[in-house]
Specification:
Blueprint (H helix, E strand, L loop, with lengths): L14 E7 L14 H4 L4 E2 L5 H9 L7 E7 L8 H16 L5 E6 L6 H9 L4 E7 L3 H6 L6 H13 L3 E6 L8 H14 L3 E4 L4 E2 L3 H7 L8 H17 L3 E5 L5 H4 L4 E3 L6 H23 L6 E6 L4 H5 L4 H9 L4 E6 L3 H7 L10 E5 L2 E5 L1
Parallel strand pairs: 1-2, 1-3, 3-4, 4-5, 5-6, 6-7, 7-9, 11-12
Antiparallel strand pairs: 8-10, 11-13, 13-14
Helix pairs in contact: 7-9, 9-11
């Protein structure tokens, strides 16, 4: 039986993250895609700072305004020498015991999560562990020089769950050897593990990596933005259908990446998360429309009714979904209304906000809930 989880995902307060970065620390080898020194965005270098002083600096007078969480990112925390882990965890655990912070989390490798490593994390109050899984295809893991297998991922997740940890999984769609077959298999395998959350980071090619050399030599072709959106939308939709939260899609933007510094190739897009959500809604609309026509039903006018909070997601960035659908179905008239608006009320003759959070598609006299 898992112990109670103090899970920040479900917490009502705004999340206050206190990040410490340990680029490559603990990693037994260099993966073909990795250059943590370039992609670590902000935060203190964990080996160079007073953890307690940094916690105090972040919290200041906002202790009760946010859900404060210390996070050790950028390397394989549980693979660090034990004395170094203790030296970093002790001040964070003291702050946790004193009620100065609410939680501690770390990221690490699946092959560094045996019973001994887990016991140490548990002893110092760590309650969330994110695992760099990247893929559940062993051929892809070997080509990426990850140094672990998919079986080790399964064992690590199960042990963490048995000890009551909140478990996150990080995936990198688009690694060398990726295709729809491997992607679907990875989605199925991850969903079977039932992690608490997933992050999806389409592969970027960063300077000073083996992958950058492969691009220049013509041995690897990175994903386009469109391909990354398609892959990520599939993963996100699949996980959400299995009640697994996807907390981020796409690498967090940095001034360096925005300027293209150190970026050799790949689908870098600061709005990746929004594009993926737009694509999810587009696919939902297309399914309803195709099923409607396949049933031999008439389709002359289409009206989309949506709640205000979903406006940008449903209509698409720069109205891309509206434009795409109008171009695909030129024999239909299209109307888009926000629930509760005067135009919607005039159209339907009722207070449309009664539909709550539903997105509705009216095709002639047929009404569909789009979920």
């Amino acid at each position: 039986m898992n112990q109670h989880k103090n899970n920040s995902i479900a917490n009502d307060k705004p999340h206050g993250l206190i990040p410490f970065y340990i680029p490559h620390a603990g990693c037994p080898q260099q993966c073909v895609f990795c250059n943590q020194h370039r992609i670590a965005a902000g935060g203190a270098r964990a080996s160079e700072v007073d953890v307690k002083a940094t916690i105090d600096e972040y919290i200041d007078n906002e202790r009760h305004e946010k859900y404060w969480e210390v996070a050790f990112y950028g390397g394989s925390f549980s693979a660090l020498p034990e004395d170094l882990q203790r030296s970093l965890l002790e001040p964070a655990y003291e702050a946790l015991q004193n009620g100065e912070i609410d939680a501690i989390r770390c990221s690490t490798r699946p092959d560094a999560l045996g019973e001994t490593e887990i016991a140490l994390l548990k002893a110092y109050g760590v309650n969330t562990v994110e695992i760099g899984v990247q893929s559940m295809d062993d051929t892809i893991l070997t080509r990426a020089k990850r140094g672990h297998s998919s079986a080790e991922v399964v064992g690590a997740v199960q042990r963490l769950q048995e000890h009551g940890f909140t478990v996150g999984i990080q995936l990198l769609p688009g690694l060398p050897g990726e295709n729809w077959h491997t992607l679907v298999n990875t989605a199925v395998a991850v969903a079977e593990l039932m992690p608490d959350f997933v992050r999806i980071y389409p592969v970027l090619v960063i300077e000073d990596t083996e992958l950058a050399d492969d691009v220049r030599a013509g041995r690897y072709t990175p994903l386009t933005v469109a391909e990354a959106v398609t892959y990520s939308a599939f993963l996100k939709e699949y996980f959400e259908e299995h009640h697994i939260t996807v907390i981020r899609t796409g690498l967090q933007s940095t001034p360096e990446l925005d300027a293209g510094i150190g970026l050799v190739g790949g689908p870098y897009e600061p709005a990746m998360g929004e594009l993926v959500t737009n694509y999810q809604w587009l696919q939902r609309f297309l399914k309803v429309l195709r099923d409607h026509r396949a049933a031999g039903l008439p389709m002359h006018s289409v009206t989309v009714l949506y709640p205000r909070q979903l406006t940008s997601k449903v209509r698409g960035e720069k109205q891309r979904n509206m434009k795409y659908l109008a171009e695909c179905y030129t024999d239909c008239t299209w109307q888009w209304y926000e629930q509760g608006s005067k135009k919607a009320k005039a159209m339907f003759g009722i207070k449309t906000n009664k539909f709550s959070d539903n997105v509705l598609l009216f095709i002639d006299n047929f009404r569909y809930n789009v979920i």
